[in-house]
Amino acid sequence: MSTDVTDKSPAAAPPGKGGGAAGGGLLRLVLDGLRRNMRQYGMLLALGLIVAVFAVWTDGDLLLPRNVSNLVLQNSYVLVLAIGMMLVIIAGHIDLSVGSLTAFVGAFAAVLTVEHQVPWPVAVVLCLAAGALAGAAQGFFIAYLGIPSFIVTLAGMLIFRGFTEILLQGQTLGPFPDGLQKIGNGFLPEAGPHTNYHNITLLLGLALIVFVVVQEFRDRGRQQEFSLEVVPRNIFLLKLVAIVAAILVVTMLLASYKGAPIVLLILGALVVGYGYVMRNSVFGRHIYAIGGNLPAAKLSGVKDKKVTFFVFLNMGALAALAGLAIAARLNAASPKAGLNYELEAIASAFIGGASMSGGVGTVLGAIIGGLVLGVLNNGMNLLSVGTDWQQVIKGFALLAAVGFDVWNKRKSGS
């Protein structure tokens, strides 16, 4: 019998090396966890790196409270569109009409409130209904007539752009009522004792931290209950600490300026609501199913046509909301509004982890992708980078994200 046994106990380690071995083991565990969850955490790490780099390059201007607030206001429409576009791409489709639809809804809102003096709450409801109706019309052609989404939404892009020109007659129309302007430019009111910070924003930030921590532990417990694979505990805690720190920093920055923008609350509600739908509802599971494997989904009883129809109806409603937000921020409706918005939404979804083949992606990933583009735009503007080079850099960012997705798939397959 062989007695050549290597002693791997801590006592066998050379003197003075025990702590280093333990630290090295923890580092290897962290790196291994990151490698196995690269799709989930890759863009989150990239966002943190981009923020850090531009914070240094701009001598801290990127993280000034005023700039952070402007960053939220300037990119709210992209983030709203990215949520809807993520659902469309997960379902295995594409929507090229959202930019033109946002312009059309903004023009429709201007005609209602400025020319016909319709009360702005009524105008908001009518605009959201118009967007949902436009999305439903496209969804009908795609789901029930079998016309490819690329063709239908390309036609929609031309149609809605034309209707925008007709409504506005080639002119800019404004200003909007004060109540409607607050959707794009407003902040939460001051309340409570006088401090150096916005009290309501601080309370909302603390509530969000509690919600995130409870939700993360609940999701992890549910996965363990069903014997699903979960990330190592050290990685989980590291992720949780990073999320809490990020929320705390953003909360303090916003609270030290004017407080949380109203559009940020709308966006937060969308993220929570759509995140729950995609994770926990039957409808969300069906979206993943038809995008991941349509024949198998049909055999499983998934009503793919109905799901596709409602995915595009939802995209139309979110495009209308984005159109209201950007028109309210600019305080006017313009025939040229919404140019390339569809490309920014698509880029945000793919940068945030969506797959070209469908069936993969998360709502949070769409938000991360939109923030990556937003920080790139904002940082390059602070550095006075020309718009020509900005387009080049964003193009390479999109190419890198899709290339990473392809590489990750091949590595997983091998």
Task: Bin the strand percentage.
Answer: under 5%
Oligomer: single chain
The number of strands is 0
Report how far apart the termini are.
39 Å
Give the % helix: over 70%
Question: Describe it for me?
Answer:
- This protein is an all-alpha fold.
- Helix content is 74%, strand content 0%.
- The chain is built from 16 helices and no strands.
- It has helices at 18-36, 38-57, 65-90, 98-115, 120-143, 149-168, 178-185, 199-225, 233-255, 262-280, 282-292, 294-299, 304-330, 341-351, 363-382, 387-413.
- The radius of gyration is 24 Å and the shape is globular.
- The model is unreliable at 1-19 (pLDDT under 50).
Main attributes of the structure:
414 residues; mainly alpha; 16 helices; globular; disordered N terminus
Q: What layout of secondary structure does this protein have?
A:
Elements: H1 18-36, H2 38-57, H3 65-90, H4 98-115, H5 120-143, H6 149-168, H7 178-185, H8 199-225, H9 233-255, H10 262-280, H11 282-292, H12 294-299, H13 304-330, H14 341-351, H15 363-382, H16 387-413
Helix pairs in contact: 1-2, 2-15, 3-9, 3-10, 3-13, 3-14, 3-15, 4-5, 4-6, 4-13, 5-6, 5-13, 7-13, 8-9, 10-11, 11-13, 14-15, 14-16
Brief description of this entry?
The protein is mostly helical and 414 residues long.
